[in-house]
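Thread amino acids onto this structure.
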């Protein structure tokens, strides 16, 4: 992963992995808010079967790409992975959706000059995405290879994006890196594979069983990921949505998370943990979050034994230099919740919103 993701656990992964334990036969490590997949990747390295979920296609694609092996992405019909990347880098710019909406060319179409990308880079993003879609339609690449290339596109466009850290908005002045020519890169693929199931949907509908280990990392803050990473979602889907405002946001409110609302977060968390069938749950918690630690402890104590383990302090998300000079560190914790075996048969059925089973597949 080559871009900052709000709430990423990349700096804490060794501490979190220490609480995973060895994999149980047939059981899954369930990363229900997978984000970019750094925690799921660590579980896979320990030998766990992995099930990833998020309500954003772009997150599931990013997380899934971390788990793909060399054997699963041979790109036989394109002459290998490196050759596929080279073909994409050679694609000539076209005047497509990204060019018309997220480069200065947007001024002619909507009267707003959006400076996410230079016109040349935006046109090349359009060309790359169209080429990937064409390969997929022609059968030159399979679904795993397609999503690997889309994930590689995320890294490439981020390296030249004229942004402060997320895609919530663009900068008024061009940065030096935004003037560089976009280029995709091969990543190092895994030498071996584990069973991976990926889905895009509601967290309440993620399958889990008593022997599974469930990891939860809810947003906890007011930042809605669907709006902060809207361009990645558009690239992931390859669609052309109606966009609004100066930032050109795609419609995102149907993906808004209850965890991002202070008045709903604790109640939603309690319902979620209650609804799980897994006997053991790992829950990430941050002092930046708007759930009171004492209230969380009280709720979790109703479910089973819970222990809170400090993981240390990390730098707060900083969108710009001013924020960097004033922001304090964030204290991170991992809560281990263990439900007594007698409770497992009493676990309530899954509730709340309907799932969006847009992507369900196995990389095994």
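Threaded sequence (364 positions):
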């Amino acid at each position: 992963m080559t871009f900052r993701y709000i709430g990423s656990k990349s700096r804490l992964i060794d501490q979190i992995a220490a609480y995973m334990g060895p994999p149980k036969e047939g059981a899954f490590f369930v990363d229900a808010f997978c984000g970019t997949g750094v925690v799921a990747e660590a579980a896979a390295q320990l030998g766990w079967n992995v099930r990833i979920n998020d309500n954003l296609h772009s997150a599931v694609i990013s997380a899934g790409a971390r788990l793909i092996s060399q054997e699963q992405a041979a790109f036989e019909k394109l002459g290998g992975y490196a050759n596929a990347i080279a073909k994409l880098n050679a694609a000539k710019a076209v005047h497509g959706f990204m060019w018309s909406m997220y480069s200065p060319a947007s001024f002619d179409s909507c009267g707003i000059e959006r400076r996410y990308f230079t016109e040349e880079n935006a046109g090349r993003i359009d060309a790359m995405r169209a080429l990937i879609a064409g390969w997929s339609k022609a059968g030159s690449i399979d679904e795993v290879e397609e999503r690997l290339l889309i994930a590689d596109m995320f890294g490439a466009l981020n390296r030249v994006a004229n942004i402060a850290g997320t895609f919530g908005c663009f900068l008024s002045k061009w940065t030096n890196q935004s003037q560089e020519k976009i280029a995709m890169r091969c990543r190092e693929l895994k030498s071996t594979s584990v069973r991976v199931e990926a889905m895009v949907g509601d967290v309440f509908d993620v399958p889990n069983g008593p022997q599974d280990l469930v990891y939860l990392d809810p947003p906890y803050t007011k930042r809605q990921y669907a709006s902060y990473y809207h361009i990645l979602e558009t690239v992931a889907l390859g669609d052309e949505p109606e966009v609004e405002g100066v930032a050109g946001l795609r419609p995102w409110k149907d993906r808004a998370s209850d965890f991002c609302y202070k008045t709903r977060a604790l109640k939603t968390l309690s319902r979620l943990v209650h609804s799980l069938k897994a006997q053991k749950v790992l829950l990430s918690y941050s002092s930046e979050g708007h759930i009171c630690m004492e209230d969380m402890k009280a709720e979790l104590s109703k479910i089973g034994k819970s222990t809170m383990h400090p993981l240390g302090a990390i730098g707060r998300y900083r969108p710009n230099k001013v924020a960097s000079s004033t922001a304090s560190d964030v204290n991170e914790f991992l809560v281990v919740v263990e439900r007594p075996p007698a409770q497992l048969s009493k676990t309530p059925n899954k509730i709340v919103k309907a799932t969006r089973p847009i992507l369900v597949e196995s990389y095994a």
